[in-house]
């Protein structure tokens, strides 16, 4: 009997507690307010060389959020006086040429000599998912750990030629953060080379031994962009063939237009595995810098690149606004149907669209 009474009291206590919980007002979770963005703090962090602040600043510039865009441009304007103090190098090459291996070995050598190196790797985005591979940090594992190096894969996001439209601005942020050597690695898919050539001081092309076979699949236009040809993987067992390839390229280059006014395109063998030719590559780059700066072409090229950038951004903005107008978008679809049904010519459709 006592046991039954005790059980009943326990059950009544549980019920009372449950009723009390039901009757008491539930506290609403209050989402913490986002801290207002402080441009000054971010700019100071970037200028101090903080990789954390630099990464956040680049993410801000890549954002499509309107508020982030405004803050990003304000940040860039503050940092602009601290830019332009690096040598900008574009690096491309045929598949399998070992671009990432070369960049890691080259970057490690530069940091040992006291330089700060930023690597902006143009990362191909999937045309299906929009996602990017972002594999450069795994391919350049040692350089990624180096405190004097910064690696940033830049997803192409479907932009023309596979070059992310913010790559130029990212380069400026890296310069403001004190990186004096900027390396831009392209995906090596044709048109991206032309666009990267338009944002760097010097353009390096990595090739493998056997120039005759390789030239069959290489566009002459890419060769004409190069200020230097690196015959890569010139390891000891392959050195004789690599030197032969260097001679073949020198003969070819003799008949081609120079990529940079006042500079004869060089060709040299390099082995990243055995670390030979890497120091010679840097000495050649320094020679190029000294010669082109003394001729005045260095500054002229950078000004022309900025002018081209300005005009390409105008085109991007016009296209964005044009297709961003819903009524205009509908008109395009309607005229497109008319053209496909052969009810009007393409020229007439364009005339109607811009009338």
TrEMBL record:
Natural source organism: Planococcus massiliensis
Xref: Gene3D superfamilies: 1.10.287.130, 1.20.5.170, P-loop containing nucleotide triphosphate hydrolases (3.40.50.300)
SUPFAM superfamilies, A to Z: P-loop containing nucleoside triphosphate hydrolases (SSF52540)
Gene Ontology terms for molecular function: GTP binding; GTPase activity
Any one Gene Ontology cellular component term annotated for this protein: cytoplasm
Top-rank taxon, per record: Bacteria
Family: Belongs to the SIMIBI class G3E GTPase family. ArgK/MeaB subfamily.
Region Disordered, annotated ranges: 1-33
Name of this protein: Putative GTPase ArgK
Stored CDD domains: MMAA-like
Ranges annotated as biased composition (Basic and acidic residues): 1-21
């Amino acid at each position: 009997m006592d046991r039954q009474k005790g059980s009943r009291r326990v059950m009544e206590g549980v019920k009372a507690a449950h009723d009390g919980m039901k009757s008491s007002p539930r506290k609403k979770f209050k989402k913490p307010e986002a801290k207002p963005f402080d441009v000054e703090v971010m700019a100071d962090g970037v200028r101090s060389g903080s990789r954390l602040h630099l990464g956040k600043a680049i993410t801000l510039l890549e954002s499509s959020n309107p508020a982030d865009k405004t803050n990003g441009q304000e940040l860039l304007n503050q940092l602009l006086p601290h830019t332009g103090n690096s040598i900008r190098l574009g690096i491309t090459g045929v598949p399998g040429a070992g671009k990432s291996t070369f960049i890691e070995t080259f970057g490690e050598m530069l940091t040992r000599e006291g330089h700060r190196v930023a690597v902006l790797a143009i990362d191909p985005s999937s045309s299906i998912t929009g996602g990017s591979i972002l594999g450069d940090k795994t391919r350049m594992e040692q350089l990624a750990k180096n405190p004097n190096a910064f690696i940033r894969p830049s997803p192409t996001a479907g932009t023309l030629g596979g070059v992310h439209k913010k790559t130029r601005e990212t380069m400026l942020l890296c310069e403001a953060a004190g990186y004096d050597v900027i390396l831009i690695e392209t995906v090596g898919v044709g048109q991206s080379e032309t666009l990267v050539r338009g944002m760097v001081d010097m353009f390096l092309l990595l090739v493998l031994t056997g120039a005759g076979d390789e030239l069959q699949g290489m566009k002459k236009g890419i060769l004409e962009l190069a200020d230097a040809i690196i015959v890569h993987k010139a390891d000891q067992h392959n050195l004789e063939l690599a030197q032969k390839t260097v001679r073949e390229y020198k003969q070819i280059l003799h008949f081609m237009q120079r990529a940079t006014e006042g500079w004869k395109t060089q060709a040299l063998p390099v082995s990243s595995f055995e670390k030979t030719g890497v120091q010679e590559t840097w000495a050649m780059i320094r020679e190029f810098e000294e010669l082109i700066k003394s001729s005045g072409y260095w500054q002229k090229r950078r000004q022309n690149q900025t002018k081209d950038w300005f005009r390409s951004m105008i085109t991007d903005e016009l296209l964005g606004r044009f297709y961003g107008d819903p009524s205009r978008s509908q008109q395009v679809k309607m005229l497109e149907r008319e053209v496909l049904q052969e009810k009007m010519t393409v020229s007439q459709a364009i005339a109607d669209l811009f009338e």
